[in-house]
Structure formats: structure tokens, C-alpha cells
Specification:
The chain is α/β, with parallel strands linked by helices. It has a single domain, classed as Rossmann fold, CATH 3.40.50. The chain contains seven helices and seven strands; from the N terminus they run βαββαβαβαβαααβ. The chain is globular. The termini are far apart. Bound molecules: nicotinamide-adenine-dinucleotide (NAD).
């Protein structure tokens, strides 16, 4: 059974400078968590300046010492760690025959897969020492299916998913739940930067059964659920938050809404 819920839990969110990570850090803060907001960009963390109960830590999740520092920041400031959201990620198009394909693969795997290894390695013991809690790994629909011209991202997100499952098994008896939130297209810089033209965005939206992209806040809500004691028997799970994309085999396009006028 879950232990008592701390009055003011402590959460740590990586990639908290923008997009889904920032929305998650803000939502946890609104819900009464004290929050360590981690990002590789100091400028991106400016939103947290002077906010009571939020501490910014500049760190690269691919760096072991950065992971050590971010966890230490939570424990030093508030004496505990209840929830870790491993959200930092990068995306880039990769073509098999491009000159930089292998460099791009290494760079993407460093953040999206190695970053998850390090985040669990340093986060899980601190959570266990606090009496238990949760890790949420932010993967992607691209980790359960594949996208054209994005093999490195696809591999990194599949790795993130199975790292979370493996960690769920290894930490289950020590009170650390580990789950995956797999977002579909969400209106943030990572997505819009990777898919330039409005025509391409319209085509993508057409393939989403709900006919729209998700918002960072919607992803944050799902992450907050997995991180919270409300999900106390959920571990090793992959929660799709994708407007129905992966429900579709993909042979038939999803039906469009009927015109109302
Ligand atoms: N936006 C989408 O459509 C979408 C879909 C599926 C999955 N995701 C995943 O959700 C996560 C967040 O995506 P987003 O769209 O909010 O991204 P974003 O680009 O809007 O924000 C990512 C943040 O992470 C930070 N970051 C990047 N590399 C880092 C590193 N090495 N160490 C620490 N911080 C780092 C960036 O500085 C930035 O502030 C990513 O893991 C991404 O792969 C996003």
C-alpha cells in the first residue's frame, strides 16, 4: 500500500524550460509541489526566477554529474524527492544516407535514452529514500511505432519505453513506480521546428483521429496523474496521450468531423 502522502511533495522535471516540461513544472507547482526545474538552457529557466517553491538547475541530462546535481538540489533544498519527470528530449530528422546520420543518432540517443538511464539511476534511490514515489518517462508515439526519416528518434523513444519498463521491475519492491507518457503531436517548439510548412502540419493533423494537436497542458495533466499517488498501483505502463493516433492500424484515414452547416 502507498505510504502517507507528503503535505508538500517535491517534484523534479527535466526539460522544464519549455513546452511539455514547463507546463508540467507549472502544473505540479500549482498542485502544491515544490519543484526543481531542470534545463540545459539557463535562459529557458527564466520563468522560474523568484517563484516561491521552484528552483532552477542548469544541467544537461546526458551528463552524469548534471543528474547528480539536480537530484542533490531537491534533497538539499527540501530534504526529499517524490516525483521525477524525465521529459528532456530532442528530435531531428535522420536519413540513412546523410553524412551526419550516425552523429545525429549518437546525439539523440545521448539525451533521449542515456538521459533516461541517468535520470533513473540518480532519481530512483532518492525517491526510495523518501519513502517512495514515481518516475514518469516522457517518450512518444514514435517509440511504439516508427516515423519515416526519423530512425534515431524512433530508436531513442523505444529505448526510453523499455528502460522505464525495466526500471519498473527493478524498483517495484522499493516503492518507486516507473511509467511512460507517450505523447502524440503537441504544439511546442520541438514539433513545429521539425515540421516547417503549414501544409505538412495540416496533413499531420488530418491523421490524428481527434483532428488536432495536443497542448502542453494536456500532456502535463497526464504526467501529473502518473506521478501522483492516484496512480498508486500503476507501474510499467505506457499511457498514450495522442488523440487516438496509435489506435489506428493506419490503413484507413480517420473519419473527418461532419460539417455542421
Ligand atoms: N511536442 C511533441 O509533439 C512531442 C511528441 C511526442 C513526444 N514529445 C517528447 O516530449 C518531450 C518534451 O518535448 P517538447 O515538445 O516540450 O520539447 P521543447 O523543445 O519544447 O522543450 C524541450 C526542453 O528540453 C530542454 N533540453 C533539451 N535537451 C536537453 C538536455 N540535454 N538536458 C536538459 N534539458 C534539455 C530544451 O532546452 C527545452 O527547454 C521530449 O522528450 C519530446 O521528445 C514531444
Amino acid at each position: 500500500m502507498p505510504g502517507p502522502v507528503p503535505e508538500q511533495p517535491v517534484g523534479l522535471v527535466t526539460g522544464a524550460g519549455a513546452g511539455i516540461g514547463r507546463a508540467t513544472a507549472e502544473l505540479l507547482h500549482e498542485r502544491g509541489y515544490r519543484v526543481v526545474a531542470v534545463d540545459v538552457s539557463a535562459d529557458a529557466l527564466a520563468w522560474a526566477d523568484g517563484l516561491d517553491g521552484v528552483r532552477g538547475v542548469v544541467a544537461d541530462v546526458a551528463d552524469e554529474d548534471g543528474n547528480r546535481r539536480m537530484v542533490a538540489a531537491a534533497v538539499e533544498a527540501w530534504g526529499r524527492l517524490d516525483a521525477v519527470v524525465l521529459n528532456a528530449g530532442i528530435a531531428r530528422r535522420t536519413r540513412w544516407d546523410a553524412a551526419d546520420a550516425v552523429d545525429a543518432y549518437d546525439a539523440i540517443m545521448a539525451v533521449n535514452a542515456r538521459g533516461v538511464v541517468l535520470g533513473i539511476r540518480h532519481g530512483a534511490p532518492a525517491i526510495a529514500a523518501s519513502g517512495g514515489g514515481a518516475i514518469v518517462v516522457v517518450a512518444s508515439t514514435s517509440g511504439v511505432r516508427a516515423d519515416p526519416e526519423r530512425f534515431a528518434y524512433n530508436a531513442s523513444k523505444a529505448a526510453a519505453i523499455n528502460l522505464a519498463r525495466a526500471a519498473a521491475l527493478d524498483w517495484a519492491t522499493r516503492g518507486v513506480r516507473v511509467n511512460v507518457l507517450a505523447p502524440g503531436p503537441t504544439a511546442t517548439a520541438i514539433f513545429q521546428g521539425g515540421t516547417a510548412s503549414p501544409e505538412h502540419l495540416a496533413e499531420l493533423t488530418r491523421n490524428i483521429p481527434m483532428q488536432r494537436m495536443g497542448t502542453p497542458r494536456e500532456q502535463a495533466e497526464a504526467i501529473a496523474f502518473l506521478a501522483s499517488p492516484a496512480a498508486s498501483f500503476v507501474t510499467g505502463a505506457v499511457l498514450m496521450s495522442d488523440g487516438g493516433i496509435t489506435a489506428n492500424v493506419g490503413i484507413f484515414p480517420p473519419p473527418l468531423a461532419e460539417a455542421t452547416s
